Amino acid sequence: MSNAVANGLAGAGGGMIAQIITYPLQTVNTRQQTERVAKKSLANSKRLGTLVQILQVIRSDGWGGLYSGLKPSLLGTAASQGIYYYFYQVFKNKAEAIAVARKAKGHGDGTVGMFSWLLVAALAGSLNVLLTNPIWVLVTRMQTHTQAERKIMEERKEALLKEASENCLTGSELQVKLAELDSIKPHPYGTWQAVNEVYSEAKITGFWKGIVPTLIMVCNPAIQFMIYESSLKHLRAKRADRKQGSKNITALEVFLLGALAKLGATISTYPLLVVKVKYTLYTL
């Protein structure tokens, strides 16, 4: 098995495990970014903590609400991580071969530079986005479907209250109609419903809505791997200068470097992520 295939399988497996563990937080995060209720409710929701919002989702949608869209999300994560890490390793191998060839010609020290790491990650990320964007469009739809239905219900209540004031409905009549609205439960919403909805609204191009901001978001993993590979190179060079017995990097050090790299990339690109999610939702 080539190192590119092994990298792809490892990335897919690790991504699925991480997705299952963190999915409730992702659901809440997506709902926060795409809040579409009245301004007063929006202001109140922003003052609530993440834990409180998780409890609100459980109260309104049950435990299943935290995992709405999990199946396509797992598929998307496996495909996305597998594709990304496969092509990342392919381009990485090419970049390292070019660096070695340049050294043989008297140029450079035989290692890949920071800009090259950025380019490698950007190329892998762009291919990943083009191939997996339809899956993430469906995931976003499924995560926010209940929220959208709740907004429709609130609009119906507002229309009913307006009608009651104009037609002078009695209090009992108004209460009966409000109770009827409250008794309506959200419709089950699965993957095929999301597929049909997207296709009926925008045809095949609907599955690539938001592709531009998503491609811009390629800079997130690009920055992440640039930081990671540069930090790894620096750590190895530092150990070589100190003439330590082993230059091998431990699993804990890899984990910490990866976490710090992801943190730096996320902080620097988070505004783009908000724009990407809202663009995907509101243009469908």
List key phrases describing it.
mainly alpha, Mitochondrial carrier fold, 80% helix
Low-confidence stretches: 36-47
The CATH C-level name is: Mainly Alpha
Determine the CATH superfamily. Answer: Mitochondrial carrier domain
Helix and strand content put the structural class at mainly alpha
Q: Supply the number of structural domains.
A: 1
Task: Please identify, by name, the CATH architecture.
Answer: Alpha/alpha barrel
Gyration radius (Cα, Å) is 24 Å
Distance between the termini: 41 Å
Main pleated sheet: none
Query: What fold name stands as the CATH topology?
Result: Mitochondrial carrier fold
- Helical content band: over 70%
User: What spatial form do the alpha-carbon principal axes imply?
Assistant: elongated
Order of helices and strands: HHHHHHHHHH
Q: Mean pLDDT, rounded to whole units?
A: 75
Beta strand count: 0
Q: Beta-strand level of the residues, as a percent range?
A: under 5%
How many helical stretches?
10
What does this structure look like?
The protein is mainly α. It has one domain: Mitochondrial carrier fold, CATH 1.50.40. The model is unreliable at 36-47 (pLDDT under 50). It is elongated and about 90 Å long. Helix content is 80%, strand content 0%.
Short description:
The protein has 284 residues and is mainly alpha-helical.
Write the layout of secondary structure elements.
Blueprint (H helix, E strand, L loop, with lengths): L2 H31 L5 H9 L2 H12 L8 H35 L9 H54 L3 H12 L8 H12 L8 H6 L2 H24 L8 H32 L2
